[in-house]
Amino acid sequence: MNIKEYIESGILEAYVMDALDTKERANVAANIAMYPELAAEVAAIETAMQHFAEATSQDPPPYMKEHIWEAIQLETTKNEPSVAPKVVAFPPENTQKDNGWARAAMWAILAGSVVTNFMLLSSNKHSQGNLVALQQHMDSMNTQQQQLVSSIKAYQKERSMLMDTSMQTIVMHSMLQGHDMAGMVFVSKTKGDTYLALHNLPMPPKGKQYQLWVIKDGKPVDMGVIPNDMVVIEGGMEKISKPFTGGQAFAVSLEKEGGSPVPTMEQIYVLGKMSS
Amino acid sequence: MPPIVTYSEEELVSLLQQQSREAFNYLYDRYGAVLYGVINKVVYDEHISQDVLQEVFVKIWNNIAKYDASKGRIYTWMINIARNTAIDKLRSKAEIMKQKIHTGEDVVDNIGGKMKTEQATDTIGLREMVAGLKPEYQTIVNMAYFKGYTLDEISKTLDIPLGTVKTRMRHAIQLLREHFSR
Description:
The complex is a heterodimer of chains A (276) and B (182). With 276 residues, chain A is α+β, with helices and mostly antiparallel strands.
């Protein structure tokens, strides 16, 4: 017998979960007795199933313990040889005729009905509560799923960029001492597409915006202003709308809102040279 | 007071064979909540669950002599008694057919049904864990574990080859094993 294949077949899991018919079960039990590898695997599955069961653990109501103990004792005495049954005489019935019993019965029915209604009402409330909880659970699952889908898309984009051998990465370093800032520019030499990612840049003050520049033959060329939401989203990556037509370095400077025609040199935050 | 002592599997078996009150206390305190949780997950009804719990303890008590250590752990044996008794209860209530049809439909994407098996009785951990399984694995774990289907029945109900059912069961439990070994 191929032990590995046998284990992989999933029959041991079914054995532990008691999901086999009698014949199969006997067969598997025989195999386990014969091969220690199978016994070890079964032990591991049993442990997993125990943990699984323990994860659903729930305390029974406190009175259950005594209740069950009584039931056990009753069962055990039932199995023992029975003693001759004791005959108990019923007290003579009250034959006096009056309609008291009818009134009592009516009251009993009424009381029963009130109790039932109350129980139905509260169980209804309980179900509604459950429904609301389920809806909330589903909502949060939907939101999580949307977040996952968008982060998967982002990863896929990054991955395809990393796989693109014509893509060049330029790391821009901080120009301000003591500020741990950085930026990355990804340029596809074949397509001219440019992407930008920023790290640790402070949120620009009101009326100001960051602007991306490419230094071409010693002259800065405007690559557009950087939307503020991009500064906020750590790890975000944006495609730059202007195509890259060549250059030797990239820089990001702080400019007035909407951008400047030339960069303010003392406001250059990060700068990085392209490797030739 | 919960027991401070824990017994090994063998010790537990011989303790139970004494049929003493002490043995019962240990058994109940140590396993009562786990068995009750398993039962509740099958029948979803606290009143029925309590009846079943009683039945399960009586069965464990009366059948301890028949327990065969070579066939598996006593813990697994007790969990399976709890599951099977709960499942039998459902079947005897003639609800099983409804349940079966229901689960058969659920298989595709009936969220409502799936959620039902994870009703309020769940701890957050389990809910996350089972939800973390792919739907096709979840269905099989739920059917086998909480509904007592044999592999053959699962294969027929879901109309998937028996081999696929087995391997999915294997994968699902592998994932659970990884989860718990963390």
